[in-house]
Design goal:
The chain is an alpha/beta fold. The chain has three domains: 80 residues, no CATH class; 239 residues, Aldolase class I (TIM Barrel, Alpha-Beta Barrel); 34 residues, no CATH class. The chain has 15 helices and twelve strands. The strands form two sheets. It has a nine-stranded mixed beta sheet with strand order 1-2-3-4-5-6-7-8-9. The longest helix is centred in the middle third of the chain and has 13 residues. The structure holds pyridoxal-5'-phosphate (PLP). Pyridoxal-5'-phosphate (PLP) binds next to strand 2. Pyridoxal-5'-phosphate binds next to strand 2.
Length: 450
Protein backbone atom coordinates (compact mmCIF):
# COMPACT_ATOMS: atom_id res chain seq x y z
CA UNK A 1 0.00 0.00 0.00
CA UNK A 2 2.94 2.32 0.66
CA UNK A 3 3.45 2.71 -3.09
CA UNK A 4 0.24 4.77 -3.27
CA UNK A 5 0.38 8.57 -3.11
CA UNK A 6 -0.39 10.02 0.33
CA UNK A 7 -3.98 11.12 0.77
CA UNK A 8 -4.52 13.72 2.01
CA UNK A 9 -1.21 15.26 0.87
CA UNK A 10 1.56 15.72 3.43
CA UNK A 11 3.80 18.73 3.84
CA UNK A 12 3.14 22.38 4.59
CA UNK A 13 3.05 25.69 2.81
CA UNK A 14 6.43 27.49 3.00
CA UNK A 15 6.34 30.49 5.35
CA UNK A 16 7.79 33.97 4.78
CA UNK A 17 11.08 34.69 6.55
CA UNK A 18 9.26 36.76 9.17
CA UNK A 19 7.70 33.61 10.62
CA UNK A 20 10.52 31.16 9.87
CA UNK A 21 11.37 30.87 13.57
CA UNK A 22 7.81 30.33 14.80
CA UNK A 23 7.70 26.76 16.10
CA UNK A 24 5.33 24.50 14.12
CA UNK A 25 3.29 23.84 17.25
CA UNK A 26 2.51 27.56 17.48
CA UNK A 27 1.92 28.04 13.80
CA UNK A 28 -0.51 25.11 13.86
CA UNK A 29 -2.43 26.57 16.80
CA UNK A 30 -5.51 28.42 15.58
CA UNK A 31 -5.45 30.69 18.64
CA UNK A 32 -1.93 31.85 17.73
CA UNK A 33 -3.07 32.44 14.15
CA UNK A 34 -6.06 34.53 15.28
CA UNK A 35 -4.09 36.61 17.75
CA UNK A 36 -1.34 37.34 15.21
CA UNK A 37 -3.58 38.56 12.41
CA UNK A 38 -2.27 41.36 10.21
CA UNK A 39 -4.24 44.55 9.76
CA UNK A 40 -2.00 47.61 9.39
CA UNK A 41 0.36 48.98 6.77
CA UNK A 42 3.26 48.13 9.10
CA UNK A 43 2.09 44.53 9.55
CA UNK A 44 1.76 43.86 5.83
CA UNK A 45 4.92 45.79 4.92
CA UNK A 46 6.90 43.21 6.88
CA UNK A 47 5.92 40.45 4.45
CA UNK A 48 4.97 42.07 1.14
CA UNK A 49 5.98 44.99 -1.03
CA UNK A 50 2.89 47.16 -0.75
CA UNK A 51 1.79 49.32 -3.66
CA UNK A 52 0.79 52.97 -3.13
CA UNK A 53 -2.80 51.92 -3.81
CA UNK A 54 -2.67 49.31 -1.07
CA UNK A 55 -1.07 51.75 1.36
CA UNK A 56 -3.90 54.20 0.62
CA UNK A 57 -6.48 51.42 1.02
CA UNK A 58 -5.02 50.25 4.32
CA UNK A 59 -4.80 53.81 5.62
CA UNK A 60 -8.36 54.86 4.76
CA UNK A 61 -10.18 55.74 7.99
CA UNK A 62 -13.61 54.38 7.13
CA UNK A 63 -12.64 51.18 5.37
CA UNK A 64 -14.26 47.80 5.90
CA UNK A 65 -12.39 45.86 8.56
CA UNK A 66 -9.03 44.33 7.62
CA UNK A 67 -7.68 41.21 9.30
CA UNK A 68 -5.66 38.42 7.71
CA UNK A 69 -4.34 35.30 9.42
CA UNK A 70 -0.57 34.75 9.09
CA UNK A 71 -1.33 31.43 7.39
CA UNK A 72 -3.44 33.05 4.64
CA UNK A 73 -0.99 35.97 4.34
CA UNK A 74 1.78 33.44 3.73
CA UNK A 75 0.02 32.48 0.46
CA UNK A 76 0.48 36.02 -0.89
CA UNK A 77 3.14 36.60 -3.52
CA UNK A 78 5.14 39.49 -1.95
CA UNK A 79 6.22 40.90 -5.30
CA UNK A 80 3.07 40.51 -7.40
CA UNK A 81 0.56 43.34 -6.89
CA UNK A 82 -1.95 41.27 -8.90
CA UNK A 83 -1.59 38.17 -6.73
CA UNK A 84 -5.12 36.69 -6.58
CA UNK A 85 -4.81 35.89 -2.87
CA UNK A 86 -3.66 39.40 -2.08
CA UNK A 87 -6.48 41.07 -4.02
CA UNK A 88 -9.09 39.27 -1.90
CA UNK A 89 -7.89 40.48 1.51
CA UNK A 90 -5.76 43.63 1.14
CA UNK A 91 -7.81 46.75 0.43
CA UNK A 92 -6.96 49.04 -2.43
CA UNK A 93 -8.09 52.67 -2.48
CA UNK A 94 -10.45 51.80 -5.33
CA UNK A 95 -12.71 49.80 -3.05
CA UNK A 96 -14.09 53.03 -1.61
CA UNK A 97 -15.40 54.18 -4.99
CA UNK A 98 -19.14 54.15 -5.50
CA UNK A 99 -20.67 52.67 -8.68
CA UNK A 100 -24.05 52.66 -10.35
CA UNK A 101 -26.43 50.29 -8.62
CA UNK A 102 -24.33 50.06 -5.45
CA UNK A 103 -26.21 49.28 -2.24
CA UNK A 104 -25.40 48.59 1.41
CA UNK A 105 -27.70 45.57 1.58
CA UNK A 106 -28.09 44.59 -2.05
CA UNK A 107 -29.89 41.33 -1.26
CA UNK A 108 -32.39 43.16 1.02
CA UNK A 109 -31.58 40.71 3.78
CA UNK A 110 -32.57 43.04 6.59
CA UNK A 111 -36.01 43.50 5.03
CA UNK A 112 -36.44 39.71 4.83
CA UNK A 113 -35.52 39.11 8.49
CA UNK A 114 -38.45 38.33 10.79
CA UNK A 115 -36.00 38.44 13.73
CA UNK A 116 -32.48 39.93 13.77
CA UNK A 117 -30.03 37.85 11.73
CA UNK A 118 -32.56 35.34 10.41
CA UNK A 119 -33.25 35.70 6.69
CA UNK A 120 -36.35 33.82 5.57
CA UNK A 121 -36.49 34.26 1.80
CA UNK A 122 -37.35 30.80 0.46
CA UNK A 123 -40.32 28.66 1.50
CA UNK A 124 -38.49 25.79 3.22
CA UNK A 125 -35.13 27.10 4.41
CA UNK A 126 -33.59 29.94 6.36
CA UNK A 127 -30.26 31.69 6.57
CA UNK A 128 -29.21 32.14 10.20
CA UNK A 129 -26.49 34.71 10.84
CA UNK A 130 -24.86 33.66 14.08
CA UNK A 131 -21.88 36.02 14.34
CA UNK A 132 -20.42 39.04 12.57
CA UNK A 133 -16.82 37.86 13.02
CA UNK A 134 -14.58 36.04 10.53
CA UNK A 135 -11.06 34.63 10.59
CA UNK A 136 -10.08 37.10 7.84
CA UNK A 137 -12.18 39.58 5.87
CA UNK A 138 -12.92 39.36 2.14
CA UNK A 139 -12.87 42.80 0.54
CA UNK A 140 -16.00 42.08 -1.53
CA UNK A 141 -18.02 40.86 1.48
CA UNK A 142 -21.72 40.84 0.65
CA UNK A 143 -22.53 41.53 4.31
CA UNK A 144 -19.97 44.27 4.95
CA UNK A 145 -22.84 46.33 6.43
CA UNK A 146 -22.69 44.12 9.56
CA UNK A 147 -19.67 41.84 9.26
CA UNK A 148 -16.46 42.73 11.10
CA UNK A 149 -18.16 44.95 13.64
CA UNK A 150 -16.95 43.98 17.14
CA UNK A 151 -19.75 45.92 18.78
CA UNK A 152 -22.64 44.50 16.77
CA UNK A 153 -22.38 40.76 16.84
CA UNK A 154 -25.34 38.51 17.51
CA UNK A 155 -26.09 37.90 21.16
CA UNK A 156 -27.38 34.90 23.04
CA UNK A 157 -30.78 36.61 23.02
CA UNK A 158 -30.67 36.98 19.19
CA UNK A 159 -29.84 33.28 18.91
CA UNK A 160 -32.78 32.46 21.20
CA UNK A 161 -35.14 34.50 19.02
CA UNK A 162 -33.79 32.94 15.80
CA UNK A 163 -34.24 29.43 17.17
CA UNK A 164 -37.69 30.24 18.53
CA UNK A 165 -38.74 31.49 15.08
CA UNK A 166 -37.50 28.25 13.48
CA UNK A 167 -39.24 26.17 16.15
CA UNK A 168 -42.53 27.90 15.42
CA UNK A 169 -42.17 27.71 11.64
CA UNK A 170 -42.69 24.08 10.62
CA UNK A 171 -42.03 24.63 6.93
CA UNK A 172 -38.33 25.30 7.70
CA UNK A 173 -36.60 21.99 6.97
CA UNK A 174 -33.11 23.37 6.20
CA UNK A 175 -31.14 25.82 8.36
CA UNK A 176 -28.05 27.46 6.93
CA UNK A 177 -25.67 28.84 9.55
CA UNK A 178 -23.58 31.71 8.28
CA UNK A 179 -22.52 35.19 9.35
CA UNK A 180 -19.71 36.14 9.72
CA UNK A 181 -18.25 32.70 10.10
CA UNK A 182 -19.97 30.17 12.39
CA UNK A 183 -16.70 28.26 12.90
CA UNK A 184 -15.24 31.33 14.62
CA UNK A 185 -17.72 30.97 17.49
CA UNK A 186 -16.45 29.43 20.72
CA UNK A 187 -17.01 25.71 20.31
CA UNK A 188 -19.53 25.40 23.20
CA UNK A 189 -21.63 28.23 21.70
CA UNK A 190 -21.64 26.57 18.28
CA UNK A 191 -22.44 23.20 19.80
CA UNK A 192 -25.30 24.66 21.79
CA UNK A 193 -26.79 26.13 18.59
CA UNK A 194 -26.42 22.85 16.70
CA UNK A 195 -27.89 20.96 19.63
CA UNK A 196 -30.94 23.19 19.87
CA UNK A 197 -31.52 23.12 16.10
CA UNK A 198 -31.16 19.34 15.92
CA UNK A 199 -33.77 19.01 18.68
CA UNK A 200 -36.39 20.66 16.42
CA UNK A 201 -38.19 17.77 14.69
CA UNK A 202 -38.92 19.56 11.41
CA UNK A 203 -35.29 20.71 10.89
CA UNK A 204 -34.08 18.02 8.52
CA UNK A 205 -30.68 19.34 7.50
CA UNK A 206 -28.26 21.84 8.98
CA UNK A 207 -25.62 23.52 6.84
CA UNK A 208 -22.63 25.65 7.74
CA UNK A 209 -21.20 28.24 5.36
CA UNK A 210 -17.59 28.90 6.34
CA UNK A 211 -14.28 30.17 5.08
CA UNK A 212 -12.40 28.98 8.18
CA UNK A 213 -10.90 25.93 6.42
CA UNK A 214 -9.42 28.38 3.88
CA UNK A 215 -8.31 31.20 6.19
CA UNK A 216 -7.56 29.13 9.25
CA UNK A 217 -7.32 25.40 8.47
CA UNK A 218 -5.66 24.92 11.88
CA UNK A 219 -9.13 25.41 13.43
CA UNK A 220 -10.38 22.14 11.91
CA UNK A 221 -9.19 20.06 14.84
CA UNK A 222 -10.20 16.49 15.68
CA UNK A 223 -12.07 17.88 18.64
CA UNK A 224 -14.12 20.26 16.49
CA UNK A 225 -14.88 17.59 13.91
CA UNK A 226 -15.91 15.09 16.61
CA UNK A 227 -18.36 17.67 17.90
CA UNK A 228 -19.77 18.47 14.44
CA UNK A 229 -20.36 14.83 13.49
CA UNK A 230 -22.82 14.46 16.36
CA UNK A 231 -25.29 16.69 14.53
CA UNK A 232 -25.74 14.85 11.24
CA UNK A 233 -27.14 15.30 8.68
CA UNK A 234 -24.76 18.26 8.58
CA UNK A 235 -23.51 19.75 5.31
CA UNK A 236 -20.80 22.34 4.80
CA UNK A 237 -19.93 24.87 2.13
CA UNK A 238 -16.45 26.35 2.03
CA UNK A 239 -15.36 29.37 -0.04
CA UNK A 240 -12.33 29.02 -2.31
CA UNK A 241 -11.91 31.41 -5.24
CA UNK A 242 -8.51 30.58 -6.69
CA UNK A 243 -6.30 27.44 -6.94
CA UNK A 244 -3.56 29.26 -4.98
CA UNK A 245 -5.74 28.90 -1.88
CA UNK A 246 -5.56 25.13 -2.14
CA UNK A 247 -2.73 23.92 0.08
CA UNK A 248 -1.83 20.71 1.93
CA UNK A 249 -3.23 22.38 5.08
CA UNK A 250 -6.63 23.01 3.43
CA UNK A 251 -6.63 19.53 1.89
CA UNK A 252 -6.07 17.96 5.31
CA UNK A 253 -8.84 20.07 6.88
CA UNK A 254 -11.24 19.01 4.10
CA UNK A 255 -10.23 15.36 4.49
CA UNK A 256 -11.05 15.50 8.21
CA UNK A 257 -14.46 16.98 7.53
CA UNK A 258 -15.23 14.59 4.68
CA UNK A 259 -14.05 11.61 6.75
CA UNK A 260 -16.54 12.72 9.41
CA UNK A 261 -19.27 12.26 6.80
CA UNK A 262 -19.84 15.95 6.17
CA UNK A 263 -20.63 16.49 2.48
CA UNK A 264 -18.52 19.42 1.31
CA UNK A 265 -19.44 22.04 -1.26
CA UNK A 266 -17.69 25.16 -2.46
CA UNK A 267 -19.07 28.60 -3.20
CA UNK A 268 -16.86 30.91 -5.26
CA UNK A 269 -17.44 34.50 -6.23
CA UNK A 270 -16.49 35.51 -9.75
CA UNK A 271 -13.98 38.33 -9.22
CA UNK A 272 -12.25 40.45 -11.83
CA UNK A 273 -8.49 39.93 -11.71
CA UNK A 274 -8.82 36.98 -9.32
CA UNK A 275 -10.59 34.13 -11.09
CA UNK A 276 -12.31 35.55 -14.18
CA UNK A 277 -10.58 33.21 -16.60
CA UNK A 278 -11.78 29.78 -17.78
CA UNK A 279 -8.41 28.14 -17.08
CA UNK A 280 -8.37 29.47 -13.52
CA UNK A 281 -11.85 28.13 -12.78
CA UNK A 282 -11.07 24.80 -14.46
CA UNK A 283 -7.97 24.37 -12.34
CA UNK A 284 -9.92 25.43 -9.24
CA UNK A 285 -12.78 22.96 -9.73
CA UNK A 286 -10.37 20.12 -10.46
CA UNK A 287 -8.40 20.84 -7.30
CA UNK A 288 -11.66 21.00 -5.34
CA UNK A 289 -12.97 17.61 -6.45
CA UNK A 290 -9.57 16.13 -5.60
CA UNK A 291 -10.31 17.23 -2.02
CA UNK A 292 -13.82 15.72 -2.21
CA UNK A 293 -15.34 19.20 -2.37
CA UNK A 294 -18.17 19.55 -4.87
CA UNK A 295 -18.27 22.97 -6.61
CA UNK A 296 -21.74 24.22 -5.62
CA UNK A 297 -22.19 27.84 -6.72
CA UNK A 298 -20.18 30.34 -8.73
CA UNK A 299 -21.70 33.71 -7.81
CA UNK A 300 -21.92 36.80 -9.88
CA UNK A 301 -20.50 39.63 -7.72
CA UNK A 302 -23.19 41.42 -5.68
CA UNK A 303 -23.88 45.13 -6.06
CA UNK A 304 -22.40 45.85 -2.67
CA UNK A 305 -20.20 48.70 -1.46
CA UNK A 306 -16.55 47.70 -1.86
CA UNK A 307 -17.03 45.33 -4.75
CA UNK A 308 -17.08 47.78 -7.68
CA UNK A 309 -13.59 46.99 -8.94
CA UNK A 310 -14.19 43.24 -8.60
CA UNK A 311 -17.25 43.13 -10.83
CA UNK A 312 -17.24 41.30 -14.14
CA UNK A 313 -19.98 41.18 -16.73
CA UNK A 314 -22.40 38.25 -16.65
CA UNK A 315 -21.13 37.54 -20.17
CA UNK A 316 -17.69 36.80 -18.70
CA UNK A 317 -19.30 34.26 -16.38
CA UNK A 318 -21.22 32.62 -19.21
CA UNK A 319 -18.02 32.27 -21.20
CA UNK A 320 -16.47 30.44 -18.25
CA UNK A 321 -19.48 28.14 -17.93
CA UNK A 322 -19.16 27.38 -21.64
CA UNK A 323 -15.60 26.19 -20.96
CA UNK A 324 -16.78 23.82 -18.21
CA UNK A 325 -19.85 21.94 -19.46
CA UNK A 326 -18.76 19.02 -21.62
CA UNK A 327 -15.10 19.83 -21.13
CA UNK A 328 -14.94 18.39 -17.63
CA UNK A 329 -16.75 16.16 -15.12
CA UNK A 330 -20.31 17.18 -14.33
CA UNK A 331 -19.34 16.88 -10.66
CA UNK A 332 -16.83 19.66 -11.12
CA UNK A 333 -19.33 22.15 -12.55
CA UNK A 334 -20.91 24.68 -10.18
CA UNK A 335 -24.18 26.47 -10.83
CA UNK A 336 -23.48 30.01 -11.96
CA UNK A 337 -25.93 32.23 -10.08
CA UNK A 338 -26.92 35.85 -9.79
CA UNK A 339 -28.32 36.67 -6.35
CA UNK A 340 -30.98 39.15 -7.40
CA UNK A 341 -30.70 42.68 -6.03
CA UNK A 342 -33.71 43.54 -3.89
CA UNK A 343 -34.08 40.06 -2.43
CA UNK A 344 -35.23 37.87 -5.31
CA UNK A 345 -32.79 35.16 -4.31
CA UNK A 346 -30.41 33.17 -6.45
CA UNK A 347 -31.20 32.54 -10.09
CA UNK A 348 -29.08 30.22 -12.23
CA UNK A 349 -27.65 31.38 -15.53
CA UNK A 350 -26.35 29.05 -18.21
CA UNK A 351 -25.35 29.14 -21.82
CA UNK A 352 -28.29 28.16 -24.06
CA UNK A 353 -28.18 24.58 -25.21
CA UNK A 354 -31.77 24.34 -26.45
CA UNK A 355 -31.76 26.21 -29.74
CA UNK A 356 -35.19 25.44 -31.25
CA UNK A 357 -38.45 23.72 -30.39
CA UNK A 358 -41.53 22.58 -32.30
CA UNK A 359 -44.60 20.59 -31.17
CA UNK A 360 -42.70 17.29 -31.54
CA UNK A 361 -39.00 18.10 -31.77
CA UNK A 362 -36.27 19.83 -29.81
CA UNK A 363 -33.04 20.97 -31.38
CA UNK A 364 -30.00 21.11 -29.10
CA UNK A 365 -26.39 22.03 -29.54
CA UNK A 366 -23.65 20.56 -27.38
CA UNK A 367 -20.38 22.08 -26.11
CA UNK A 368 -18.65 21.25 -29.40
CA UNK A 369 -21.33 22.93 -31.48
CA UNK A 370 -22.74 19.56 -32.62
CA UNK A 371 -26.43 20.05 -33.33
CA UNK A 372 -28.94 17.26 -32.84
CA UNK A 373 -32.66 16.63 -32.63
CA UNK A 374 -34.58 15.04 -29.78
CA UNK A 375 -37.97 13.67 -30.90
CA UNK A 376 -40.71 14.02 -28.28
CA UNK A 377 -42.88 10.97 -27.50
CA UNK A 378 -46.39 11.19 -28.98
CA UNK A 379 -48.03 8.81 -26.51
CA UNK A 380 -46.81 10.30 -23.24
CA UNK A 381 -49.42 10.05 -20.47
CA UNK A 382 -48.99 12.58 -17.68
CA UNK A 383 -49.45 11.19 -14.17
CA UNK A 384 -53.14 11.25 -13.11
CA UNK A 385 -52.48 13.75 -10.34
CA UNK A 386 -50.68 16.58 -12.05
CA UNK A 387 -51.46 19.25 -9.48
CA UNK A 388 -48.31 20.21 -7.63
CA UNK A 389 -48.74 20.11 -3.87
CA UNK A 390 -45.82 21.74 -2.08
CA UNK A 391 -44.29 19.71 0.71
CA UNK A 392 -43.89 21.18 3.26
CA UNK A 393 -46.95 23.37 2.63
CA UNK A 394 -46.25 26.96 1.75
CA UNK A 395 -47.19 29.69 4.17
CA UNK A 396 -47.17 32.19 1.33
CA UNK A 397 -49.36 31.29 -1.59
CA UNK A 398 -47.42 33.66 -3.89
CA UNK A 399 -44.28 31.60 -3.42
CA UNK A 400 -45.78 28.88 -5.62
CA UNK A 401 -44.43 31.07 -8.37
CA UNK A 402 -44.07 29.80 -11.91
CA UNK A 403 -44.46 26.15 -10.82
CA UNK A 404 -47.88 27.21 -9.47
CA UNK A 405 -48.83 28.64 -12.88
CA UNK A 406 -47.86 25.37 -14.56
CA UNK A 407 -49.96 23.45 -12.03
CA UNK A 408 -52.97 25.59 -12.96
CA UNK A 409 -53.15 26.97 -9.43
CA UNK A 410 -53.09 30.53 -10.72
CA UNK A 411 -53.15 32.06 -14.14
CA UNK A 412 -51.09 35.20 -13.57
CA UNK A 413 -48.39 36.68 -11.37
CA UNK A 414 -48.83 40.43 -11.15
CA UNK A 415 -46.35 43.08 -10.09
CA UNK A 416 -47.36 44.92 -6.92
CA UNK A 417 -49.94 47.60 -7.67
CA UNK A 418 -50.69 46.10 -11.08
CA UNK A 419 -54.41 45.70 -10.38
CA UNK A 420 -54.85 49.21 -9.01
CA UNK A 421 -53.01 50.72 -11.97
CA UNK A 422 -55.27 48.99 -14.43
CA UNK A 423 -58.58 49.60 -12.63
CA UNK A 424 -57.71 53.26 -11.97
CA UNK A 425 -57.14 53.69 -15.66
CA UNK A 426 -60.79 52.67 -16.22
CA UNK A 427 -62.05 54.77 -13.31
CA UNK A 428 -60.31 57.92 -14.49
CA UNK A 429 -62.26 57.82 -17.74
CA UNK A 430 -65.33 59.73 -16.62
CA UNK A 431 -68.61 58.58 -18.03
CA UNK A 432 -71.17 61.37 -18.34
CA UNK A 433 -73.94 60.87 -15.74
CA UNK A 434 -77.04 59.08 -17.10
CA UNK A 435 -79.38 62.11 -16.87
CA UNK A 436 -76.92 64.18 -18.84
CA UNK A 437 -77.28 61.81 -21.81
CA UNK A 438 -78.68 63.91 -24.63
CA UNK A 439 -82.14 63.06 -25.95
CA UNK A 440 -81.49 60.92 -29.01
CA UNK A 441 -84.05 62.83 -30.98
CA UNK A 442 -81.91 65.94 -30.63
CA UNK A 443 -78.98 64.15 -32.30
CA UNK A 444 -78.36 64.07 -35.99
CA UNK A 445 -79.74 60.82 -37.50
CA UNK A 446 -76.29 59.28 -38.02
CA UNK A 447 -75.46 59.52 -34.28
CA UNK A 448 -78.67 57.92 -33.00
CA UNK A 449 -78.47 54.34 -31.68
CA UNK A 450 -82.18 53.48 -31.92
C1 LIG B 1 -28.36 31.34 -0.47
C2 LIG B 1 -29.47 31.39 0.48
C3 LIG B 1 -30.12 30.23 0.90
C4 LIG B 1 -29.74 28.87 0.41
O1 LIG B 1 -29.97 28.74 -0.95
P1 LIG B 1 -29.67 27.36 -1.68
O2 LIG B 1 -29.90 27.64 -3.13
O3 LIG B 1 -30.66 26.38 -1.11
O4 LIG B 1 -28.27 26.97 -1.36
C5 LIG B 1 -31.18 30.37 1.77
N1 LIG B 1 -31.58 31.59 2.21
C6 LIG B 1 -30.98 32.71 1.81
C7 LIG B 1 -31.48 34.01 2.31
C8 LIG B 1 -29.90 32.66 0.95
O5 LIG B 1 -29.29 33.79 0.56
Amino acid sequence: MSDLPAYPPQGRTPRPALWADVPDAQWDDWRWQLSHRLNTVEDFARIINLTPEEIAGLSAPNKFRVDVTPYFASLIDPDDPDCPVRLQVIPRARELEAFEGMMEDSLAEDAHSPVPGLVHRYPDRVLMLVTTQCASYCRYCTRSRIVGNYHATFSRRDHDLQIEYIRRTPQVRDVLLSGGDPLILPQPVLEDLLHRLRAIPHVEIIRIGTRVPVFLPQRITDELVDMLRKYHPLWMNIHVNHPKEITPELARACAKLADAGIPLGNQSVLLAGVNDHPNTILKLVHELVKMRVRPYYLYQCDLVRGSGHFRTTVAAGLEIMEALRGHTSGYAIPTYAVDLPGGGGKVPVMPNYLIAQSHDRLVFRNFEGYISTYVEPTDYQRPKKTKWVPDPPLAQQQQRGVAGLLAGEDTTIKPEGWHATHTQRGASFEQPPAEAQPDETELPIWMRMH
